[in-house]
Amino acid sequence: MESLIGLVNRIQRACTALGDYGGGDNAFSSLWDALPSVAVVGGQEWGLPSAHPKGIVTRRPLVLQLHKTDDGQQEYAEFGHIPRRRFTDFGMVRKEIADETDRITGKTKQISPVPIHLSIYSPNEDGLDVLVFHLNVLIYCREPVMFSLVPFVVNLTLIDLPGLTKVAVEGQSETIVEDIENMVRTYVGKPNCIILAVSPANQDIATSDAIKLAREVDPTGERTFGVLTKLDLMDKGTNALDVLEGRAYRLQHPWVGIVNRSQADINKNVDMIYARRKEHEYFATSPEYGHLASKMGSEYLAKLLSKHLEQFIKARIPSITSLINKSIDELESEMDHLGRPIAVDSGAQLYTILELCRAFDKIFKEHLDGGRPGGDRIYGVFDNQLPAALRKLPFDRYLSVQNVRKVVSEADGYQPHLIAPEQGYRRLIEGALNYFRGPAEASVDAVHFVLKELVRKSIGECQELKRFPSLQSAIAAASNEALEKFRDEGRKTIVRLVDMESSYLTVDFFRKLPQEMEHTPQKGGKPEAAPAVDRYGENHFRRIGSNVSSYVNMVSDTLRNTLPKAVVYCQVKEAKQSLLNYFYTQIGKKEGKALAELLDEDPALMERRMQCAKRLELYKKARDEIDSVAWVR
């Protein structure tokens, strides 16, 4: 049995050492919450040995862990909130409990759900008796059931909770009754918590707050043990047999009566071993309870609790093991994402930076090549945006009869054209082709915007880079600088394509125009001279506009095919092949300090990695503890 209870206690000690106190932190699954524990619940005065109320004795949950150490070691206490500080003066332990309570609640009578974790270490059980005895005297002169169990249950975690109350006293909030009940419920409501429901024998059991709450959170009674105190303080002629024998209120487990030390005993420093002997004599010689003596007292309660705890732990070890293994896998996966600590030498740092750059570049290329979404937006520029922009060009207005006449007339100068207005054609075509610059440059800018967005997205998706905000910024700046250069080159190239169309017109297209203008087919297939054309009439300029429009449409079809090729060649292809080339050359020139600055991690991620590492260490220790117990194998 000790190996089972000791196993849970060792895991709980590891939880405490590594900061897992249960509840609150949803970032990690809590191993503490998955472990069996024992919580003591009662009214505010159930633990007081005499009628000397001192307000709320416990204003924060006190998680007390008792540890048997090797012989020869000094007895001491440690708090979870100030680890590695040992208290050998238990007057200071009492002061620290009070100070730590006030730190959270203020110097008021308010309560707080934040637990105080206290560990007591002693090389022998008698030493634990002495320590806890002194602690009892110093902590508000109280003697709750949990301290009565100390001689019999070593290496166990006990949780002492604030007492339930029905009314608020002066200095407390109006919600104090509900606040205390909710706090206690968060502990005893957990399916892994064994409940010691403590009620005073000199009060009606039907009004017991502890029993009422236990019944609500544990309706089957599997986890509840009823404890009856103050049997020695009942009025003469009365007894608690109806409760102890299960007639007044039956529980699944038998009721256990106990007798604590009196206030006078505490004041006289009567030790707990002597107190337990007196408790045994009380039941053995009691005319009311003598027949129940073998099943009464703190020692029997501890044995009963230990036996049940052993079965309780056995039943839950498989689920605890499953939680541990699942959590280890999850934490190791997250540690891989967060990355391991960075080496300090320059060579390793440079290698790390280059590897991170390659990881980013790989994601960026996947976006372009279709492995990840986003690259298709570039095709959307060519298939939708560019054709739509070309269709919206104002050629109808530019090639209207009025504008054609104006441009042709201006091109003729003082000498009107004699046959065909060649200079007028050239001016009209050059003017029309200039309109193509706008959609062409807009395509370059649109692709540039998509590439910049993919850089930003790729940096965000690169898990390895999340640790290093400085390197993220450097990669983003270098990538955007490179994309600017690619955009400039792309813009130059597409402007050249438009200018090339203006610099040399397609001759074959215009060679057909005079024939079409001067000949018309005749019956029998022989052409005849055309009718005289009014070279300054409206139809003449409309025909010129129509011819220019046909030529411009031909050029538009050509540019619609060539512009995307130029943009892809100058921008997309270059981005795939050499986005970080210049950055690589600059990185190679940096010294150790500059490299270290690039690998300056986000403090939040450093903290997350540290917490993951601590939690991973906890779960691995817990796994090793379970594996070390022979019965598991």
UniProtKB/TrEMBL annotation:
Domain Dynamin-type G: 32-318
Subcellular location: Cytoplasm, Cytoskeleton, Phragmoplast
Domain of life: Eukaryota
Main location: cytoplasm
Biological process (GO), any one: cell division
InterPro entries assigned: Dynamin (IPR022812), Dynamin_GTPase (IPR001401), Dynamin_N (IPR045063), Dynamin_stalk (IPR000375), G_DYNAMIN_dom (IPR030381), GED (IPR003130), GED_dom (IPR020850), P-loop_NTPase (IPR027417)
Ranges where the GED domain occurs: 541-633
Gene Ontology CC terms, in alphabetical order: membrane; microtubule; phragmoplast
Keywords: Cell cycle, Cell division, GTP-binding, Motor protein, Nucleotide-binding
MF terms in GO: GTP binding; GTPase activity; microtubule binding
Protein name per Swiss-Prot or TrEMBL: Dynamin-related protein 1E
Organism field: Anisodus tanguticus
